[in-house]
Amino acid sequence: MPDLLLEILSEEIPARMQAKARADLQAMVLKGLDEAGVAHGAAQAFSTPRRLTLHIEGLPARTPDLSEERKGPRTDAPEKALAGFLRSTGLTVDQLERRDDKKGEIFFAVIEKPGRPVAEALAEIIPGVIRGFPWPKSMRWGTGDLRWVRPLTSILCLLDGEVVPFEVDGYVAGDETRGHRMVDPVPFAVSGLDDYRQGLLARKVILDPAERESLILQRAVGLCEGQGVSLLDDPALLREVAGLVEWPVPLIGAIEDEFRALPPEVLQTSMREHQKYFSAVDKTGRVTHFVAVANVEGADGGETIVKGNAKVLRARLADAKFFWENDLRAVERAGLEDMAASLTSVTFHNKLGSQAERVDRIAALSRDLCPVTHADPALAEQAARVCKADLASEMVYEFPELQGLMGRYYAEAANLDPSVALAAEQHYSPLGPSDTVPSDPIAVSVALADKIDTLAGFWAIEEKPTGSKDPFALRRAALGVIRLVLENGLRMRLSQPVGVALMRHVYLIGRRDAVALGEPLFDALEQFGDEGGGAERRAHFESLIAHFLSPESGMAEQLDPGFGDEMRATVADLLSFIADRLKVLLRDRGVRHDLIDAVYALGGQDDLVLLVKRVDALQAFLGTEDGANLLAGYKRAANILAAEEKKEKATIVPIPDPSLAELDEERALFAALASAEAATAPAIAAEDFGAAMGSLASLRAPIDAFFDKVTVNADDPALRVNRLALLARIREVTGRVANFAKIES
Amino acid sequence: MRGSTIRRGDRSSGDRYGETMTETTTTPRSFQEIILRLQAYWAAKGCAVLQPYDMEVGAGTFHPATTLRALGPNPWAAAYVQPSRRPTDGRYGENPNRLQHYYQYQVLIKPSPPDLQDLYLGSLKAIGIDFAVHDIRFVEDDWESPTLGAWGLGWEVWVDGMEVSQFTYFQQVGGHDCRPVSGELTYGLERLAMYVLGVDHVMEMPFNDPDAPIPLSYGDVFRQTEGEYSRWNFDVADTATLLRHFEDAEAECKRILSAEAVDPKTGKTIVMAHPAYDQAIKASHRFNLLDARGVISVTERQAYIARVRTLSKACADAFLATPAGGAEAA
Q1: Which of A336, A490, A508, B40 has the fewest CB neighbours in a 10 Å radius?
Q2: Looking at A202, A234, A260, which one is the last position of a domain?
Q3: Which of A142, A153, A300 lies closest to B133 in CB terms?
């Protein structure tokens, strides 16, 4: 069967775009074939820095005959409707069929599309794919209007060895390609995939990126072994480098002694980011060698290339060393706090103030969290005060990706407590669903405070994520909060730190330009004057916060005078955002989302550790036979109630009268509900949700028996009302553990 | 159709680079020889070899032969050396790689010819870079100039891991789509020459032939001036004066552009795009000097850049209303 070979040759395609381009090319051409009803065999896409290639096996010679049927207007519809239908189908009235339908006689159009050579279909599909290709960034060149990632050189398109004739903006598809730019750029003709691959290989191009990757890795490892060092694994760099070369030639060079004392991460980052070099370490873990990947072999065995690269690296590392030594000197002389002091002039966000103000808030919140995290408040505050200091360092200015890590190095250089240094490094964590979560109490406090402060800030200025837009990575921050809380088993009502963080934001923003959100707060604070720079007002504000954080406070109760409805709504909204992230996290762990909803529906579920415990117990319970049957019984009761309540437009009050119970089964259910309720309450209070569910399990038999023997819809209206109320009791008692209505059976 | 003025290489022979230059691919001996070879190469490829623009600019792109000529439909091909000033990069002549005054070699061809990459590679060969032993790469680099309201896509070109040029297809200049698209090549001459000549410190690089009766190094020519300008740029330049000059240039630029297109004296339509653009360049450089003096805060910075961009855009609009910008002559 015929196969397709398509190559789009261009000037150098950015490495980072190649993987998606391969996938897009394949998906788009296959979609075109599918739409034309053309079956096909296996497809594979390749890329090099200069070409995107697609091969599809097992194509038929012709596209199938297609017959499309389209329903039109009624035969008695106005002229206009018929005219439109004729226009869209390209038929005349006498070509239409009249068919009887439920609604009368209807016009039908049957459009026959006879099959045609597949080459013809491809000649239409491929230009469309090229014109509509979704490059992240594309450009025009010369006098043309076509957009591609960089200027196109040529298009090769062969079906079974024959050129598929098409043209895109002056580029005529042919059977020629070119080899390596620097080695053999003369165009040459090919007849099919094998020929194409071999022709390229002979001209120093390895078509398959996976092959280039494994070749680079294998040779780089070999070179390192030869020097007695080991290559540092870097899969992302490997992918990138494989996209930068058509003919990979790894070369190894030594790093000069004077740079080997730099932190290994600094060497690795500098080499990776600027030069795309791999790092190799000796037995003590020092980075001593680099592996560069050239695109040519070099007539002198690569000697000139290594020398040149080593020279560039020397200049780069001299810069890094200069920054490192300057930073160390500054920290040793004046301490990390002094470095942090320059954050006053660095804007965090134009509505949320400077980095220094942000640090103030994080420090206060870190302290507030200490009873929960069991951290030393003074150390937590100190850690928060220096955690962003490295943002003012020369090294982080040059290599932003080293933030945190440099903070740790500089905190160590300043002889700060090891847990403070650790917090400086770890407080950004976790950065994603698989990143490690800090466990040291100081790091946990600061990491949590940092994220909560960020979330509360953007909620205060109403810059929440929308759709795919999340420029401040707030979803990631929320997930970070959840993971910090769950994986460290932190017991707290999340609304408390969230509320406090919001109050602090409003307090600070409010002084710049008053926002509606904070009006009640400012009304409450107005009685305090400006004496002593508003010290008294500040003190009162902090006392409000302290009260709010006390165990007896909570979102559900009347809060402090500073809290208006709007602020309360903002806290609730942020908590529900966090709840959504929690659902995603739990769903990924195999927890049913309806069970999470069932627990959330209880209300006030802002203790995440407790919430997850409940959900887990619920999932376990529903997995048992008792649980499944109880759910069925509940559903039966709830359905009857729902129908009744809809009819009556009123909620049925769950207060049945035991004296009206006629049958044994009825009386048994009364008793079972009472004892189940009595047993669940203490179990829930003791957070033993397994036991609480277990006591509900005792309801199963009485409920089944009740439905078996008792007619709810009794003739006696009093009896009927009482039995409905009894069903409402089932709903009430089970509802203490979870809202079973949310559970899908 | 107006064609490109660039003579193409013999394409059927497979784009072999710099065929006419094979006899000169010896290693050059001096900084100036590299410049001379580039001039000869691009002249041979059909470019008008222009002279530097006689104003202080931050990069070769600011020369009106690039910024303004990239606009409008008329074909263009020019090459030139442009002395460039970046006050914040001054290191008193002590840093081996950093200078507040340096040279760029700039090529602009409109429309970008299909073999521009090959033409570029030919120029590397012409200055003695032997492809048999060096690794040449085109590494993604998108270019954007916030003060010119311009952007383009292209690469930085690496020779053995060293960035020696920027290669850009202009997409927009002064807020206008470029149609046709210009191809722009910018060589950092000192860095490129240091690499080709195997020199580690810019000041030690031979400026003229080392065997000349009076051999001069780059340091002989520029070490002292680097020191003088570094001091002035960082500590002595009067910020009040600079600020006034910035504002004067801004006002003059706007005043020029607000003048009637028809000159009352000659009765001719004369849109003064270039004189206005001179003022935009002046404002831009005054801003760079203010920046080096450290008197511009982070937030103010954006505002200044926006003010310069406004001027650049207005000049681009004006240029498009001139014959060189493609407007019908009145």
Answers
A1: B40
A2: A202
A3: A300
Q: Write out pLDDT tens, residues A639-697.
A: 888 888 888 888 888 888 888 888 899 899 999 999 998 999 899 889 999 899 888 88
Do B160 and A139 count as a contact with CB atoms less than 8 A apart?
no
Whether residues A11 and A149 share a domain: the answer is yes
**CATH code at A737?**
1.10.730.10
**For residue A213, is it within any domain?**
yes
A142 contacts B139? CB cut-off 8 A? no
| CB-neighbour burial class of residue A572 (10 A; exposed 0-12, middle 13-18, buried 19+) | middle
Band of the pLDDT at A523, cuts 50, 70, 90? low
Output DSSP code: residue B5.
Answer: -
Choose the closest CB to B114 out of A12, A140, A142: A142
Residues of B in contact with A353 (CB under 8 A): none
Could you list the residue range(s) of the whole structural domain that residue A295 is in?
Answer: 209-322
Q: Say if A647 is an interface residue toward chain B (CB within 8 Å).
A: no
Q: How far is B84 from chain A (nearest CA, A)?
A: 22
Lowest-confidence pick of A176-190, A343-357, A545-559 = A545-559
Q: What is the distance between the alpha carbons of residues A139 and B50, in angstroms, rounded to a whole number? A: 28
pLDDT of residue B161: 93
A180 and A137 housed in the same domain: yes
Q: Do A496 and A350 sit in the same domain of this protein?
A: yes
Q: What is the pLDDT of residue A528?
A: 60
DSSP assignment of A243-261 equals: TT-SS-EEEEEEPPGGGTT
B140 by Cβ neighbours in 10 Å (0-12 / 13-18 / 19+) ranks as buried
The set of residues, in sequence order, having a beta carbon less than 8 Å from that of A223 and lying 6+ positions away, is A250, A251, A252, A291
- Whether the full predicted model's pTM is greater than 0.80, yes or no, is no
- Interface residues of B toward A, Cβ cutoff 8 Å, are 13-16, 96-97, 111-114, 117-118, 121, 131-140, 142, 152-155, 159-162, 169, 171, 178-181, 183, 195, 200, 297-299
Other beta carbons within 10 angstroms of residue A433's beta carbon come to 12
Q: Given CB atoms, is A345 within the 8 Å cutoff of chain B? A: yes
Measured distance CA(A287)–CA(A272) in Å, rounded: 13
Distance CA A365, CA A384 (A): 9
CB contact under 8 A, A244 and B15: no
ipTM (interface pTM): 0.90
CB contact under 8 A, B161 and A143: no
Number of domains in chain A: 5
| A57 and A80, same domain (yes or no) | no
- Min Cα distance A315 → chain B (Å) is 8
pLDDT tens per residue, range A249-279 = 999 999 999 998 899 999 999 899 889 999 9
Percent of chain A at pLDDT exceeding 90: 53
